[in-house]
Specification:
Two copies of one chain form a homodimer. With 271 residues, chain A is an alpha/beta fold. Helix content of chain A is 44%, strand content 17%.
């Protein structure tokens, strides 16, 4: 627990900064990994992003995000698959091992149909990801996001979905913010052994206001981070990057040279 | 589906009105049941509330809420049990069959300990409830409330907890707002056969802002209300009251003589 060799700064934590500013801050503060978001990548351009990251000596832990498979029409679903293929290309260009899948929500009220569209979408995407050596990481999202971002809401559901595919290509991402409340969280982390391809940390602040922006810096909320990290390591994810992913206006408004030392301190103290 | 004989107005839906105003509105609009909240009961006084409800010719579907078992000290936990006994007394005085249990959250980060405190609390409360003929209805709350209101977050967990007790005294309440997202919701409703003591309806609005106040009138959101009602009826809750429970500022600011016709219309059209 006494080093930051596994620490990754998920770029959404520094949403107000450019990719260049974020990787420079990582380099200044000795943070070895960054997780890249595609909207930031689009601002910078892939070629330039690759150079910025390489020149800063930073590695990419994951690319966020693919997914968003459900849509009202077959044409739109095909377009989403095509966009996921481009995300796989981006991940490969960045040298990221993992493309995070935020699976998407129903275009209507039929969440069961949306879940089938997610399974179909992953099935279509897998051969392309496999060919390029990118692992797809299914990230179950908190049930508060079931109507807007992901119909895949629990570790159990993510695992049952992942188990339809080769573990070399399809895994699961455990983000504490999304899963901490689950009465089966420890059992399900154990059952995910061999499938875990990412571990994301933040904290759940109390009281909850806007549930999307309610993440806090580790130690500021109610999540038992150490116990969850131990469970994830026990399940085999013992050396991969640990991403700090915080969506929070106050965090976003903190200067990077104040924020990164705080994140390092809390990572060492609380994770 | 063509009558309102099972319709109950949960009093939180008319939070700005007194109990007297709410039961009078129910009587005017032919709504046969009301679900009473204890903070409103305290304003009115139990004796007067009993008379108001009886004089209006309205029945009480449930009293909300008991629960809130976890606390930092044994003395505080004992005080909570004592308060739950008073809630049982209130339910008996009102002629309500069911006391809704919102089980409570951890006083610290230890959600597993909180879950044990809930089980211990219900164990202590059961003999008193049994003696007075009140059923305790464990209501799993949406995981967004796990840190502040209820460590019991899924139907499965509520069922496993309820199964430790006699079904004549301890049951489960299915509230669509809390459970709609669950990939196992239909399986779990089926497994709850014989244990269901309440069915609450509203809707999940999109986009989510404040998750506590995000409920909508039935039909305004994404929940498959008819399918859930059919499942609940299939599981044996086929004649009991169906409560409309909506926490939403716009609903609260709607005059009762506008709101109640809307609720009736949507209940008939969507539930």
């Amino acid at each position: 627990m006494d080093s930051i060799t596994r620490l990754s700064l998920n770029q959404i934590t520094t949403e107000r900064a450019s990719l260049g500013e974020t990787v420079d801050a990582c380099a200044r503060h000795g943070v070895p990994y960054v997780a890249v978001w595609r909207h930031k990548l689009a601002e910078t351009g892939v070629g330039r992003a690759v150079r910025l990251i390489r020149d800063a000596g930073i590695r990419v832990s994951s690319l966020c995000r693919g997914g968003m498979f459900p849509a009202a029409t077959a044409a739109e679903r095909a377009a989403r698959i095509e966009d996921n293929r481009r995300a796989v290309d981006d991940a490969a260009a960045l040298g990221a091992d993992v493309l995070i899948l935020v699976c998407g929500a129903a275009p209507d009220k039929d969440i069961a149909a949306a879940r089938r569209m997610v399974a179909d979408g992953i099935t279509e995407l897998v051969p392309y990801a496999q060919k390029r050596g990118i692992r797809l990481g299914i990230e179950p999202l908190h049930p508060a996001f079931a109507a807007e971002r992901s119909c895949i809401t629990t570790l159990r559901e993510a695992r049952c979905l992942a188990e339809r595919f080769d573990p070399a290509t399809v895994g699961i991402v455990a983000d504490v913010y999304h899963i901490w409340w689950d009465p089966e969280v420890f059992d399900e982390i154990a059952r995910a052994a061999g499938r875990l391809v990412g571990f994301h940390v933040s904290d759940w602040l109390v009281p909850v206001g806007n549930v999307l922006m309610n993440r806090g810096v580790m130690g500021d909320g109610v999540i038992e981070l150490r116990a969850l990290r131990a469970a994830v390591e026990q399940a085999g994810y013992a050396a991969g990057p640990i991403e700090v992913e915080i969506m929070n206006e106050a965090v976003w408004n903190t200067p990077l040279d104040t924020l990164l030392p705080l994140i390092k301190e809390r990572y060492l103290a609380c994770v």
